[in-house]
Amino acid sequence: MLTPELLHGLRNLSLAARRAAEGFLNGAHASRRHGAGMEFSQYRPYQPGDDLRRLDWRLAARSDRYYLRESEVDTSLTVHLLLDASASMNHRDDNGLTKLDYARLLLASLAYLAQQQGDSVGLTILSPAGLRHLPARADTRQLPRIYHALATAEAAGTFPDSATLAPLTARRQRALTVCVSDLYEEESEINALLTRLRAVSGDVLLLHVMAHNELAFSYHGAVTFRDLESGRTMQLDADQQRPAYQLQLQQWLRDTAQAARGKGFDYHLLSTAEPLDQAMREFLRRRITAG
């Protein structure tokens, strides 16, 4: 499995997404039905009224019987990718990656997987300056658009307010929404957005990204912490505060997961030190149920 730092080191989002996703493509096609699609499934006897273009003439010549080639057709859907680009996503892990770096790799890989499934894919980058929105499309030029938007995204400020987010929920459109965020919020604004999106669009996959040094609190001695969104600072002894920090963190993570699942979101915690495999596996699993 390729580590996030190796993928990031490629310095090519398109290549990194393809390399990360290629191991999931074999056998990953889900939610299929028989029809006149691209992949061969089985033969069935010809019946009057069937499309003659689907007859296997070579088999007919050998067996003197007429069979149609049944195919398998993927049921496609719309995938809406959301990136939290608030300033807290600039937090850097011990492996050198920020949460934003990890989110870029993850969303690029999911976009690649979705296109391979024949889905329409869109992307919205959420920042206080406004929404950078790419409407869902299934054409061949969509992936380069998404890669460019992700590669040039910058994290700044706080999570956008409800007025800025309003266009996202203005229209009802069935979709699988995938949100990548660290879920640092002032007044449940991220959860409020996802709740509205679930009401107007359907399934929500919430990928909660945390840095390993946040989860393990791998700091030592006297440390000064700065809130990336408010600018406030705090000085403390990391070794002394570690037990209390970890207790509070675990309680927050439990409460966060319980609240998200209680609202019907498919919630998963990810570490920036871990490969992207778990997230891609959950995406494909959710895609099966959504399709």
Automatic annotation (TrEMBL):
<dbReference type="InterPro" id="IPR002881">
    <property type="entry name" value="DUF58"/>
</dbReference>
<feature type="domain" description="DUF58">
    <location>
        <begin position="42"/>
        <end position="247"/>
    </location>
</feature>
<protein>
    <recommendedName>
        <fullName>DUF58 domain-containing protein</fullName>
    </recommendedName>
</protein>
<dbReference type="Pfam" id="PF01882">
    <property type="entry name" value="DUF58"/>
</dbReference>
<dbReference type="InterPro" id="IPR036465">
    <property type="entry name" value="vWFA_dom_sf"/>
</dbReference>
